[in-house]
């Protein structure tokens, strides 16, 4: 499951000032769509609309054919996982941070959830161990480690739709490459929307849309867009 469709979506934070001027795209279940474009184009707004943080003023948004305006906030949250740009960790154990949302999750529960979500190997590769207190290590936790904890926390919910919001932008290039490899593996089985600044980070996407000032100005695969440059 997890097919996402935006059909002629119009939206403005202020109804007097429209930000998205009729945006349409479809992501088949299991495929990856990348949204690129300059700052202010409306990329993050698309992600927020998918979460229904805001109501749209025209068009429709659906997941697996269900209009999201008729879906409860709770089931939307179960359907969509987000890997945020900046990860804020709780001053607690890695296990607590990963299990956040499942109050008091124990290690065996986390492991069962990890197996169910097919990310057990990934979780086990976290360098910290479940019982390490994040706060004790403090600044020693590298950007890449934090990002992996963030990814694990999101994936434990096993959401059919994944939203990656510039997930690797704050990392050094070696760590960025590592995380991208992890994300590529993980996103292969899920519908994924990647919000990215740079074309070079979304080479593998099934489709790339280029957004500019709230309009899709180009779409295609990476090779098509690079040729057009
Ligand atoms: P990088 O090389 O760092 O990956 P690019 O120079 O390819 O980044 O892209 C920089 C900006 O230009 C991005 O915002 C991207 O959306 C835009 N861009 C790049 N190629 C195209 C294209 N073919 N059509 C429209 N916009 C493009
Ligand atoms: P991007 O993610 O491509 O950088 P955004 O979706 O964040 O772009 O922003 C698109 C436009 O919406 C910009 O003009 C921005 O100033 C405006 N915008 C973003 N968030 C808000 C908000 N909460 N209230 C009002 N305007 C906003």
UniProtKB/TrEMBL annotation:
Residue ranges occupied by any ABC transporter domain in the UniProt entry: 4-229
Domain of life: Bacteria
Subcellular localization, as worded in the UniProt entry: Cell membrane
Protein name: Metal ABC transporter permease
Segment of the intact protein contained: 354 to 582 of 614
């Amino acid at each position: 499951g997890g097919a996402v469709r935006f059909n002629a979506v119009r939206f403005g934070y202020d109804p007097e000032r429209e930000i998205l001027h009729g945006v349409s795209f479809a992501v088949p279940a299991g495929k990856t769509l990348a949204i690129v474009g300059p700052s202010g184009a409306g990329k993050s707004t698309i992600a927020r609309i998918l979460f229904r943080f805001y109501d749209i003023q025209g068009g429709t948004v659906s997941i697996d054919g269900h209009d999201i305006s008729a879906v409860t906030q709770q089931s939307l949250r179960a359907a969509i996982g987000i890997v945020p740009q900046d990860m804020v960790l709780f001053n607690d154990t890695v296990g607590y941070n990963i299990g956040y949302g499942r109050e008091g999750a124990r290690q065996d529960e986390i492991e069962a959830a990890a197996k169910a979500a097919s990310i057990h190997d990934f979780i086990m590769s976290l360098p910290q161990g479940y019982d390490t207190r994040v706060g004790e290590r403090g600044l020693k936790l590298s950007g890449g480690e934090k990002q992996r904890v963030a990814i694990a926390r999101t994936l434990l919910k096993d959401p059919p739709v994944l939203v990656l919001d510039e997930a690797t932008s704050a990392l050094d290039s070696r760590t960025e490459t590592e995380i991208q490899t992890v994300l590529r593996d993980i996103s292969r089985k899920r519908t994924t929307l990647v919000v990215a600044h740079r074309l070079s980070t979304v080479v593998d996407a099934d489709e790339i849309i280029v957004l500019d000032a709230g309009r899709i100005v180009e779409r295609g695969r990476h090779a098509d867009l690079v040729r057009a440059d």
